[in-house]
């Protein structure tokens, strides 16, 4: 694992040795993050022989490096989602935290789950209008939520930076690498084969299904699931061009003293705000402030790259502005053009689920369950999410520079707004 807060504080890593030799499997799953591991667990529990092949170790990708915020829903508000895809899809997206927390409970996964809600604070009055509309749409569907007037919000956040917001009580926080390791252990216990250090290098059709090759192992499988998200390579032509991988970046302080700790998100919620380049933050289980946002396009950033997130900390929580940082790290988020995750049937017996747009803790777990349903033989009409055709982006190579340019532009607009109000930007 690249160094990070989560790598330093996770439950002990189990060894999942490289696969060698010739094997048969019902389903091979490429990628050992939340999506692949959830698929493996659900398949194994249904009695299907599933084999996870992970290039590094379970949780190595975004799953072991994210903010650990278990957030319900997708980037689209429920009314819009429902008008495009129907009520079942809204239920699926909103039900992600229930699945995550129930798996944690069922398999006794030791990952410091705290389910006190996800707060979305608004940085200006325009954003407040948007989040209140969102809150009303979820309230209409019976979701346990609360609109937060400024006074109550300030109290829950421990900062007066925002104008108001809402809390969705379905959400919460986890130690993400421990959750990934727990999913891997549960899947292995249920009968799935889990193999690290096993990069899949070739995939080809065979009369009986698919041939999956790692260099050290050849597996004949009836079905294959690709669960590689922001780390998707060229295993299946065109798939990598359906997402734009961008880096999200996090920093963490040392454990804070008790008094300071009680002044930041004192009731244990996690938060992500409404700025164009959003800040997402929380305390970890040992009382560190963990702050995330956009950073440099680097796999392993250094302390020198932490300037903009440190300034976020000093604006929100000046009481910790001078505290030294203990960790900086980053990982790849997979963005899609329509801001929705995609579920594909790429060929007969070949499935992919990817493109979580930074919302994959809950949705990746849900996607794994849906991929397991498909690979397990369910009628696609019974899978509660749209199955779409793969659409590689035209001029894909230009998307990342474009995203970077837009990010710079957003940074300037966020800064102008913070200084002079929303009209300035
Ligand atoms: C810094 C950061 C912060 C984030 N914060 C949040 C958050 O707070 N809340 C939230 O909901 N979401 C968050 N996300 C998004 C979330 O982490 C991801 O959406 C989710 O982890 C995706 O899971 P996954 O299993 O699909 O992909 P990943 O966890 O990225 O796993 C893909 C795996 O595929 C493997 N792989 C790729 N190619 C091959 C191959 N050929 N052979 C074998 N293995 C292969 C990789 O090694 C990798 O381990 C964040 C992401 C990042 C990077």
Automatic annotation (TrEMBL):
InterPro entries listed in its UniProt record: FAD-dep_OxRdtase (IPR006076), FAD/NAD-bd_sf (IPR036188)
Entry-linked Pfam families: DAO (PF01266)
Signal peptide: none
Domain FAD dependent oxidoreductase as annotated: residue spans: 26-372
Gene Ontology molecular functions: oxidoreductase activity
Keywords attached to this entry: Oxidoreductase
Coiled coil: none
GO CC annotation terms, alphabetical: cytoplasm
Regions crossing the membrane: none
Annotated PANTHER family: FAD DEPENDENT OXIDOREDUCTASE DOMAIN-CONTAINING PROTEIN (PTHR13847:SF281), SARCOSINE DEHYDROGENASE-RELATED (PTHR13847)
Name under which the protein is recorded: FAD-dependent oxidoreductase
